[in-house]
Specification:
The complex is a heterodimer of chains A (277) and B (288).
Chain A (H helix, E strand, L loop, with lengths): L1 H32 L3 H7 L14 H9 L2 H32 L5 H11 L4 H14 L7 H4 L6 H12 L4 H8 L4 H9 L4 H16 L3 H6 L8 H9 L6 H21 L1 H11 L4
Helix pairs in contact in A: 1-14, 3-14, 4-8, 4-11, 8-11, 9-10, 11-15, 13-14
Chain B lengths: L1 H26 L18 H8 L1 H32 L6 H9 L6 H11 L7 H9 L16 H26 L3 H9 L4 H30 L2 H6 L11 H11 L3 H32 L1
The chains are: A mainly alpha (277), B mainly alpha (288).
Chain lengths: 277, 288
Amino acid sequence: MAVRMSRQLLHYLTLMVAASVFVAPLLFMVVGSLKPEHQVLVDAGSWRAFVPDEVQLNNYLDVFDRVRFGRYLLNSLFITAMIVLVGLVVNSMAGYAFARLQWRGRTVLFAAVLAIMIIPLEAIAVPLFYQVTMFGWRDTYLVQIIPFVANALSIFLFYTFFVGLPRELEEAARVAGAGVLRTFVSIVVPNSKPVYATVAILTFLMQWGAFLWPLMVTSGEAVRPLPLAVATFYGLPPLQWGDIFAFGVMMISPILIVFLIFQPWFVRGVVATGIKG
Amino acid sequence: MGLLFAAPALVGLLVFVAIPFALALILALTNLRLGSPLPLEFMGVEQFRRIFADAAFTRALWNNALFALVVVPLQTGLALGLALLLHQNFRGRILFRTLFFMPVVFPLSLVAVVWTLIYAPGPSGMMNSFLTVVSFGAWEPRDFLHDPLFALPAIMVTSIWQGTGFQMLILLAGLQAIPEELYEAARIDGAGHLGTFLHVTIPQLRNTLIFVVLVTTILAFRLFDQVQIMTQGGPRNASTTVMFEAVQAAFSRQQVAAGAAMSVVLFVVVLAVTMVQQRFARQEREIQ
């Protein structure tokens, strides 16, 4: 009994130590955002960094005074939402075509999609930049959305799900005279909610933090997303850590709330990437 | 009809992945430099010879490799440890899983900015004072991000903090997929904790582990955001990476061809890593 108790205690203790490492930077940011500027640096070297005193919201007001935070937030939300939504439509249709429909070139093109899956954005960012410059797309929403809509991994995830779906429902719909599009929209999609949710979450996770590409293609602040904006805000004199932390807290709150509500789906989304392994 | 269904996605992949990829290969073989008076020429592999003669680029390649060599085993080990801790029945399981996974939803750029302050120089910097406390005063405060010895390790720690939760979740799913009978059989055979771990958990988790290692290795070679924000590749290239050099070449120096050649090198590394992984995974299937 005593052995079991102490094992349990050790288990919890290990978990607590690990958890505090993961939470400390976040806590530092939240607490720091509430402190007067001079206090942030003074407290950074002690336990006081994690304890709020003299709580005030000046840093938050400062952020709105100094930059157009609301604009960045809307930019990020709009760009990510468009990539996710249009991506769901386009990639699920492709996944369905590869999983269920008979057409010429299907095998070859599917092999091509699988091959494309391993090309990271970093390997094509430089030529892609010159390409979109030729299109005249610099400094737009378009340039941050369109190149990322079609996604080989998403197609693959939809493909594997649709292949495993029982054919009977679709066949019944076809016998009843529904066309391919009709069958897809009214039979397949409603029965595939899990895969849509998984791909949506995964796309969101991958695109929400986009930094390299916006850094390359945007120069004005009109279409700048949050991850880039926090870096430029950090570089904007005077260097005020309280303000930067307030920016960080406001930037992370919406996604943290979404994450806490839809956590099971995040878990599924992450696990889905491991399927192909 | 099938082609029609697939067309929008296929056109997207063609225009925004396949064509730029081909363009990278072609540009790498030229001398393209914006604003250069020289005529555009085909130069064969000259660009590759040049970037490999460039000390900053070879240092970058080495830094990426070093990053992978350190971060992959550390992060995978840490993620596996956390997954094992969570793969038990106890109160607060979901809470701890949430806390470990939370950094994953943080944009890397925000993480990099916050950690820049954590690494602040002087005895009152958070990391410095933490290390002073745990070393009972033996630690001498450093300016981590401006110290050639500590800049890259500092970025490694930041990246591990942000990335472990992702790996942990995948490994946890892998653990949950292992049939309970295998553990029972091992216990009947008299295996202890270590025995079941080595003879049941690790072999059963093998493909998941290979996948996690692959993803982490590839991410190590894509490293950019943290470097751009925390160190700008410095001091004296101590923390530069292939992607940071490619962006420098293409945008600061307008050397498009050199930037393209570096991108191609990045892709070759990713391809090689993927092929090695496929080989390991295939061996596993043959054994089964």
